[in-house]
């Protein structure tokens, strides 16, 4: 049997930001099952559908540019999929577009985040810090945390006053190595304001040449606006 | 609510427990609603969402126009502290509105150790704990579920209890509350009115008096309320629906599968099992209905596993044809079938093949006791040969793991009976060595012993529980007997001891419960929170002796705290069963021979004609 790979673009905002990566995989698997989408399953003792989410988000981070790949064993109507899916997805998960195929996730090199900070620190001080050296203890898989300068992993950094605080727009390295935006917060608390609180939104994906990763929905190509309407 | 809490939610464990927004959660327009109900589950979201009763009643109540039923669960301690710190009242997940603004809070009582969570939830909602401290504007606090067969320990806190199966009575009751709300009458008027609905028990309308020895001398109904409250059952169980749009949790819950209820009641009559007596008579759904509902629960939930649930699934009359027709469409959809509560004596190669068609699930048997005599005492009616045959089938079929459940502290138990639990596990191990298929693989035999807690409405309701020391010693005996290849775990006797106190407690325990809660007891079913010291302090402060409730043998003619609550099984029958237990005499199952439990002579058993 031949298989097709489908790529789904979706947003994860509002209260859905608290759904963890693994839980979200199950949420999608069940939504597909209810819609009778002919998912491609693994063989073996415990068959499971092939689902893959690019760059799993941390709990508490919103995103306007999520990508999910899954295999199907028979042709389906791709055009109507986001619409049908939205009736079966929890509050805050919104499917936007679906296409057959797509560039490999490995070609995602940078992700843009908008980080809203409640703080009194002026923008120029913040900018100065994150363009010099910021050492935080970075965790990695199965290893003890290592003090690391995160600035080389920040490709672009800007910040402006926003409502009662600051809004940072940062383009962060996303694969090999990758930088979780929580480290921006960690550095901020450590060097500038220990009391600051943060909201994170991933807004766009880019490849190594800093071009938009794909033409699917996301702020990178002007489809969405920030802040998202819930 | 969530906007207010969003700063804090990232800091608590599994925040998606507290956000709602699941597919299938019912959102109604408040303007169309004249009665707001919160179904309150006094444990975590993951436990509560696994409860079939919650799902059935949520669906049923929300089918009523004008009534909106939402859900609330007990928050984990981190979230509890966030609610207190941010002065946020406990809220329902659908609307985010605080529980204090609801008309009805409906608690389900599944387990005695969740009682402190009932108080905790009321407190977090800003509602006075004691019913007589609540005013006309506070919600009506009701409770149902298995523990209401002895509701007395919660009599001070709950306005009314619903005894037995809730599907019909909850709708009748909510109808009355709705009319009452429009009438503007007092809460007292409502309570004297609804106590006439069969199955509704209003504790404040009964007076309990005690003698010098602490025993109950009289239970007096006031204002002409019924002398006994008879449990409700659904006569036509085939008509009970499954939700068409079930809630699909966003996080993994304890029983993360679609559940299909095959029948209610149990033909067996195991003498320790409360549900076996209180849920009588046996009522099966037809295989046609079940086939249709199985398909519907899978298609509407998207689950990849369906569990056929009941008190003893292998006793369902049409189990084989049902499994066959479910598997016909399950298999191509990669939906696996699980059959919990299988009896070893009905386990066959055929059934084994069915449950492993899509995914191989675990295998669990409950011999309950180690010796044939002990199994006769509890009326388990299972021979060791049945168990060994079943396990041989499983091991030959390639299984390399099995779980075995036992009880320690049963009436008439000797050290020999206890050691034999260990020896039985060892024999299972030898059996595996003889019949294993793959010589390279090791075996996982895990056996667990829980402490026997005598429960109301069973033949052992008059029995003393074993002391904590005796139970510890017995667990040690098993531990010393089992081979090292077998994992042996046992329940903490301290928790079981408190469970035993409340299982057969009277309404004087209300003050102990409140005191324990004030001392910090909650989530008592979780070992990380349970504190025996705090509980003992609460008993001491209130001047009540827990041994009086847990360790005392009752006379057959003692007035038990639940004497006015009837599950339809006669006292004479329970006494007779208790005597037969002492004589290690088994009683045949209901299908082989009617044992005259009392439901038949009342015309309430559908399987016998009186």
Q: Give the terminus-to-terminus CA distance of chain B.
A: 57 Å
Number of strands of chain B: 19
| Backbone shape of chain B | globular
**CATH architectural category of the largest domain in chain A:** 2-Layer Sandwich
For the largest beta sheet of chain B, what order do the strands appear in spatially? Answer: 2-1-3-4-5-6
User: Could you tell me which chain pair has the largest interface and how many residues each side has?
Assistant: A-B, 31 and 26 residues
Proportion in β-strands of chain B:
5-15%
Count of individual helical segments of chain B: 20
User: Would you identify the regions of chain A where 5 or more consecutive residues have pLDDT less than 50?
Assistant: 219-230
Overall average pLDDT of chain B: 94
- What is the count of DSSP helices of chain A, taking H or I runs of 4+ residues? 4
- Integer-rounded radius of gyration of chain B: 24 Å
What key attributes describe this structure?
heterodimer, A: about 230 residues, alpha+beta, Alpha-Beta Plaits, eight-stranded mixed β-sheet, two-stranded antiparallel sheet, 4 helices, disordered C terminus, B: about 600 residues, alpha/beta, six-stranded mixed β-sheet, 20 helices, 19 strands
Describe this structure in words.
The complex is a heterodimer of chains A (230) and B (610). Chain A is α+β, with helices and mostly antiparallel strands. Chain A has two domains: 4-102, 2-Layer Sandwich (Alpha-Beta Plaits), CATH 3.30.70; 107-206, Alpha-Beta Plaits (2-Layer Sandwich). Chain A is 17% helix and 36% strand. Chain A has four helices and ten strands, in the order βαββαββαββββαβ. In chain A, the strands form two sheets. In chain A, strands 1, 2, 3, 4, 5, 8, 9 and 10 form an eight-stranded mixed β-sheet that branches. Chain A is elongated and about 55 Å long. Chain B is of the alpha/beta class and 610 residues long. Chain B has helices at residues 2-9, 45-48, 52-62, 77-85, 115-124, 167-183, 187-194, 274-278, 287-301, 319-330, 349-355, 372-377, 384-396, 415-435, 468-481, 493-503, 509-518, 532-542, 546-550, 571-582, and strands at residues 35-41, 67-73, 104-108, 140-144, 160-162, 200-201, 206-210, 216-221, 229-230, 258-261, 263-264, 283-284, 305-309, 336-338, 364-368, 401-408, 444-451, 486-490, 565-566. Chain B has a domain at 2-230. Chain B is built from 20 helices and 19 strands. Helix content of chain B is 34%, strand content 14%. The model of chain B has no long low-confidence stretch (mean pLDDT 94). In chain B, α9 packs parallel to α10, α13 runs parallel beside α14 and α17 crosses α18 (532-542). Chain A binds chain B through residues 14-16, 18-20, 22-24, 26-27, 29-34, 36, 41, 45-48, 59-60, 88-92, 197, and chain B through 2, 7, 9-10, 15-16, 19-23, 248, 250-252, 299-304, 333-334, 358-360.
């Amino acid at each position: 049997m031949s298989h097709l790979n489908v790529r789904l673009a979706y947003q994860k905002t509002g209260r859905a930001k608290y759904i963890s990566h693994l839980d979200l995989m199950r949420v999608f698997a069940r939504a597909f099952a209810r819609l009778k989408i002919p998912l491609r399953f693994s063989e073996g003792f415990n068959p499971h559908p092939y689902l893959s989410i690019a760059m799993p988000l941390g709990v508490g981070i919103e995103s306007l540019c999520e990508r999910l790949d899954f295999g199907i064993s028979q042709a389906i109507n791709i055009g109507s999929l986001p619409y049908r899916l939205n009736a079966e997805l929890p509050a805050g998960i919104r499917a936007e577009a679906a296409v057959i195929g797509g560039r490999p996730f490995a070609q995602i090199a940078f992700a843009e985040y908008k980080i809203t900070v409640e703080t009194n620190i002026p923008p120029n001080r913040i900018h100065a810090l994150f363009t010099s050296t910021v050492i935080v203890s970075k965790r990695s898989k199965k290893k003890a945390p290592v003090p690391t300068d995160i600035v080389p992993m920040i490709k672009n950094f800007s910040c402006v006053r926003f409502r009662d605080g600051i809004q940072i727009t940062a383009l962060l390295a996303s694969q090999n190595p990758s930088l979780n935006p929580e480290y921006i917060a960690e550095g901020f608390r450590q060097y500038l304001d220990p009391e600051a609180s943060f909201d994170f939104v991933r807004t766009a994906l880019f490849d190594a040449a800093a071009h938009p990763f794909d033409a699917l929905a996301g702020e990178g190509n002007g489809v969405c606006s920030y802040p998202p309407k819930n | 609510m969530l906007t207010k809490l969003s700063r804090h939610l990232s800091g608590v464990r599994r925040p998606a427990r507290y956000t709602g927004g699941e597919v299938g959660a019912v959102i109604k327009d408040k303007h169309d609603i004249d009665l707001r109900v919160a179904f309150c589950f006094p444990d975590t979201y993951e436990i509560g969402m696994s409860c079939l009763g919650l799902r059935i009643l949520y669906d049923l109540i929300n089918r009523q126009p004008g009534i909106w039923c939402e859900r609330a669960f007990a928050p984990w301690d981190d979230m509890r502290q966030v609610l207190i710190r941010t002065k946020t009242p406990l809220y329902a997940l659908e609307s985010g509105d605080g529980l204090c603004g609801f008309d009805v809070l409906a608690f389900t009582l599944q387990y005695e150790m969740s009682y402190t969570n009932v108080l905790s939830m009321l407190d977090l909602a800003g509602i006075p704990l004691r019913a007589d401290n609540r005013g006309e504007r506070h919600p009506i606090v009701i409770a149902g579920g298995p523990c209401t067969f002895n509701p007395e320990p919660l009599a001070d806190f709950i306005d009314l209890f619903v005894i037995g199966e809730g599907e019909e009575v909850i709708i009748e009751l909510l109808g009355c509350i709705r009319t009452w709300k429009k009438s503007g009458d007092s809460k007292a008027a409502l309570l004297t009115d609804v106590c006439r609905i069969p199955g509704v028990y209003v504790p404040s309308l009964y007076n309990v008096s005690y003698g010098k020895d602490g025993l109950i001398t009289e239970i007096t109904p006031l204002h002409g309320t019924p002398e006994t409250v008879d449990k409700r059952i659904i006569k036509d169980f085939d008509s009970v629906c499954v939700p068409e749009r079930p809630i699909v949790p966003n996080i993994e819950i304890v029983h993360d599968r679609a559940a299909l209820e095959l029948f209610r009641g149990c033909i067996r009559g195991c003498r320790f099992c409360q549900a076996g007596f209180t849920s009588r008579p046996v009522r099966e759904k037809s295989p046609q209905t079940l086939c249709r509902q199985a398909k519907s629960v899978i298609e509407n939930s998207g689950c990849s596993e369906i569990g056929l649930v009941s008190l003893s699934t292998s006793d369902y009359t049409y189990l084989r044809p049902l499994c066959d027709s479910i598997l016909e469409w399950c298999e191509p959809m990669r939906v696996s079938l699980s059959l919990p509560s299988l009896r070893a004596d009905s386990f066959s190669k055929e059934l084994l093949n069915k449950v492993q068609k899509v995914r191989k699930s675990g295998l669990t048997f409950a011999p309950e006791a180690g010796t044939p005599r002990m199994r006769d005492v509890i009326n388990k009616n299972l021979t060791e040969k049945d168990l060994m045959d079943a396990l041989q089938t499983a091991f030959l079929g390639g299984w390399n793991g099995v779980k075995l459940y036992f009880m320690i502290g049963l009436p008439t138990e000797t050290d020999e009976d206890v050691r034999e639990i260990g020896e039985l596990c060892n024999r299972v191990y030898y059996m595996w060595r003889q019949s294993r298929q793959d010589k390279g693989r090791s075996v996982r035999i895990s056996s667990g012993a829980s402490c026997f807690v005598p429960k109301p409405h069973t033949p052992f309701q008059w029995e003393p529980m074993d002391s904590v020391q005796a139970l510890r010693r017995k667990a040690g005996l098993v531990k010393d007997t089992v081979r090292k290849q077998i994992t042996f775990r046992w329940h903490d006797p301290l928790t079981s001891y408190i469970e035993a106190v409340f299982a057969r407690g009277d309404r004087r325990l209300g003050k102990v419960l409140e005191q324990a809660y004030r001392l910090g007891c909650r989530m008592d079913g979780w070992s990380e929170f349970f504190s025996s010291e705090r509980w003992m302090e609460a008993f001491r402060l209130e001047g009540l002796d827990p041994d009086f409730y847990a360790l005392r043998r009752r006379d057959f003619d003692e007035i038990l705290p639940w004497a006015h609550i009837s599950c339809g099984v006669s006292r004479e029958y329970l006494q007779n069963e208790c005597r037969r237990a002492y004589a290690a005499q088994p009683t045949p199952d209901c299908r082989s021979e009617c044992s005259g439990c009392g439901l038949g002579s009342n015309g309430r058993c559908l399987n016998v004609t009186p």
